[in-house]
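In this section we walk through a basic example: taking a raw amino acid sequence and producing a predicted 3D structure, encoded as discrete structure tokens. The instruction is simple. Fold the sequence below.
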Amino acid sequence: MNALEIKINFHQLIDQINNDQLLIKLYRIMEQASSTPDGQLWNRLSESEQIELLRIEGEVQSDQNLIPNQQMQTKHQKWL
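The resulting token sequence is shown next.
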């Protein structure tokens, strides 16, 4: 993919996100990444590492991935 294709795909992806908190976090990440001088942690990551971190952040913020505390306690009762 060239830069133009990436930008178009990125805009389309953002347009599909309906989670305000996730959008704010992604915005902050992009804002920080674009204003951080070379040599900082984000810039030292490979493109695939950056994409993976953004994917993980999205999963963490999704309510779909939450497991109720009671369910976890029941599941792991033998270790509690």
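Looking at the output, two observations stand out. The CA atoms of residues 5 and 11 lie 10 Å apart. The chain has five helices and no strands. In the next section we compare this with other chains.
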